[in-house]
Amino acid sequence: MAETVFLVAVGLAAGALLLAGIRFARGPWAVDRTVALDAMTIIATSLIVAFALLAGRRIYLDVALVYGLVGFVGVVAVARYLEGGL
Amino acid sequence: MLAIVGAFLSLLGSAFFVLAAIGLLRMPDALNRMQAGTKATTLGSILFLLGIGLMRPDFLGRIIILILFIVLTNPVSSNALARAAHAWRDRIGLKMTPDALAEAEAEAAALASSTAEAASAKPTSEVQHDA
Fold this sequence. Notes:
The structure holds two protein chains of two kinds. Chain A is an all-alpha fold. Chain A has one domain (about 1-85). Chain A has helices at about 1-25, 30-55, 60-85. The longest helix of chain A has 26 residues, at about 30-55. Chain A starts with a helix and ends with a helix. The model of chain A has no long low-confidence stretch (mean pLDDT about 90). Chain B has five helices and no strands. The longest helix of chain B is centred in the C-terminal third of the chain and has 31 residues, at about 100-130. By secondary structure, chain B is mainly alpha-helical. Helices cover about 85% and strands about 0% of the residues of chain B. Chain B has two domains: about 1-95; about 100-130. At the A-B interface, α1, α2 and α3 of A face α1, α2 and α3 of B.
């Protein structure tokens, strides 16, 4: 029961990642792509934690933390570049 | 029991992820997309990660650190993205009739130029005084 519901939740999150990827591909401006990249980073961090649960290994939690950190720094760097302050 | 509650919390969180993605696809301009894409994913990731933490209580410490990290950093990146969209508002075609940030930037620029004029006027008056 819990396994099935959780697998449905992971599938929905992966679908949300794909939908945000469509916005990332279509643009039309760099700001829109960066907004989509920010949402995709958060969803991918959650999916990495879900993979840690499914694989049963704690090390993927650290991977998720580092991925979230790198994604945050990347989004802020691109946003500051688009603003013209970098 | 705890596992079932956690699984349904994760399902609720991924429903918020799907809503955020639909908002990203269907909202009309960049600021509206940012509104959908950052706030809904923050709430969705909190619910999704708390659900996983309830399913495996030994993951809960790292998951709370991750939730705190997302709650602290997502508004910061949202703010940077909003300033970027504001800097591109003419090219993108955003309609911003009450634009407080542009007024504040114009005021700051006017203040800076007036202080620069005062600073440059001071030595010239001294030069005139010497002459």
